[in-house]
Amino acid sequence: MASSDPSVMIDLNGVRFSYADRPILQGIDLTIKKGEIVAIMGGSGGGKTTLLGLMAGRLKPSSGSVTLDGFDVPHLGKKDLYALRRRIGMLFQFGALFTDLTVFDNVAFPYREQTDLPEAMIQALVLMKLEAVGLRGAHRLMPSELSGGMARRVALARAVALDPALMLYDEPFTGLDPISVGIIGRLIKRLNRALGMTSIIVTHDLNETLRLADRVIVLSGGKVHRDMAPDEIRETEDPFIRQFADGLPDGPVPFHYPAEDYLTELMGS
Amino acid sequence: MTGRMAAILESLGHLLTGRLDRLGLAARFAGALVLVLWMSIRRTSLIIRELYFSGVRSLSIIAVSGLFVGMVLAVQGYEVLQRYGSTESLGVIVALSLVRELGPVVTALLFAGRASSAVTAEIGLMRATEQLAAMDMMAVDPLSRVIAPRFLAAIVSMPLLAAIFSVAGIIGAWIIGVQLIGIDDGAFWSQMQASVDVRIDVLDGLLKSIVFGTAVGLISVFEGYFAAPTAEGIASATTRTVVISSLSVLMLDLVLTVMMFRGLS
Ligand SMILES: Nc1ncnc2c1ncn2[C@@H]1O[C@H](COP(=O)(O)OP(=O)(O)O)[C@@H](O)[C@H]1O
Ligand SMILES: [Mg+2]
Fold first, then answer.
1. E-strand spans in A69-178?
2. Which candidate, A66, A207, B47, B66, has a CA 20 to 30 Å from the CA of B261?
3. Mutation choice for ligand 1 from A19, A173, A218, A220, CB with most ligand atoms inside 8 A
């Protein structure tokens, strides 16, 4: 089994998942090695966030196996799961900063909860993490006083506070101005290099993806549609990927939500 | 006709099973909460923060309401007692009504509207903005870090607030009865002292408050925790907290009062 291979960080085998009766993932096979930056792309509502939830043990697959660093994630007890999660960082789509805590206290949260470090040490660590995302000067602000890009950067500082071995990013670029996109992209790459962490990035942003990722996985129909190097994406004829790459409104991912014939509906039935 | 009957029965059945499902969910939630209670009791700083938000900030509304209720009780009580020529018992009547009944009940109703609704909205919003998920991902259990302190704060605040309500009410009755109507000051207090039993009356009131605090606290964190992550979801969860808390308090009050009834002895 691949899971016993120490160079593998995540191994998914035939993973299926449904919400109520609606199948979302229908047999995902995926292996991610330690130190890799892997991008996961796919249409909206395609189950990308769900896939991250399965990897982190927040959701349980209806069948198939999820192995993370040798651990059988869906069958871990709460204590072991939490022990595993101390080595995982996650950047949520909208940052998910604690709105009742300052920027400083948000980043200090993991240290205060998970370590016995003295407050002076915590202060030094927090300011260092904030410096790395360029927001040391903002440490007294409340999350409500931050722009979207700043909030995402603070959330990133908080997510990497305990130097995780694995970082999960849920649409880190969505809704950000191009400058913040560039800053976050560079941070992800730098963290990956400096700490040797494995990174999984769910994203729609093809340009940034091609610049960052070692490998791109395209989901479609609840399955892994393609697994390729960034260079291949630029050249592929695959219509699904071309639609993404060229930003075409219609294609294999339909522009229209399924509906009855427009004319019939306009004329009344 | 039979078709309509069947349809009505069916929707009644759905309503009932829906309610039972939710009750089951609440029971499981309460069980999980009890398991983490001990861990969060040790984090007193978190509980103190919630005591401030729920308890301290309800102080003024509780004290003012108590004062008014006590004043009304004094006027009403005086009218009745006058017919029997025993107006100096006013202090006893007011104190017993407040300590045994109105203090715990009105405090719980006001608390549900003032503090618990805010707790539901806060937790619901934390869930909708994935703050609870983020916490869970950082290996910190939201149940013990966020939910339990708010639940415990309700249990602790309720008896204290009810006591303040009763004291304010007695002061209100004293202002009306002694200062305005002119009942003898000494009789007002000495009769009250002689007839209000600390072990029976005060303990009964205390017990009621603790039960109400537990119920209202549980309802507010449950509704917040399971609120749909939308604006309407949080709005309706907040409303449900107030409605269900109020009804539960009144029902529990009936049950407790009957249980505490000591006959005519
Ligand atoms: N808690 C939930 N309950 C029911 N359906 C859900 C829930 N969360 C997500 N879904 C549905 O599952 C599908 C996949 O969601 P998601 O993984 O968030 O997609 P993506 O991140 O790729 O946009 C979506 O259609 C979404 O509506
Ligand atoms: Mg998503």
1. 71-72, 88-91, 166-170
2. B66
3. A19
> B108-139 as b/e, with b when 16 or more CB fall inside 10 Å?
bbbbbbbbbbbbbbbbbbbbbbbbbbbbbbbb
Q: Which of B14, B102, B76, B58 shows the shortest CA–CA distance to B220?
A: B58
Per the CB < 8 A criterion, the answer to whether B127 and B222 are in contact is no
Ligand approaching nearest to the C-alpha of A170: 2
pLDDT, tens digit, 9 for 90 and up, residues A152-206: 999 999 999 998 999 999 999 888 888 888 888 888 888 888 878 899 999 887 8
- Contact in structure between B120 and A92 (CB atoms under 8 Å): no
Q: Are A200 and A215 in contact (CB under 8 A)?
A: no
Write down the domain spans for chain A: 100-163
State the complex-level ipTM.
Answer: 0.87
CA dihedral B200, B206, B207, B212 (to 10 degrees): 150
Say how many C-beta atoms besides its own lie within 10 A of residue A117's C-beta.
14
Do the chains contact at A99 and B126, CB–CB below 8 Å?
Answer: yes
Around Cβ A4, how many Cβ atoms within 10 Å? 9
Helix (H) or strand (E) holding B213: helix B203-225
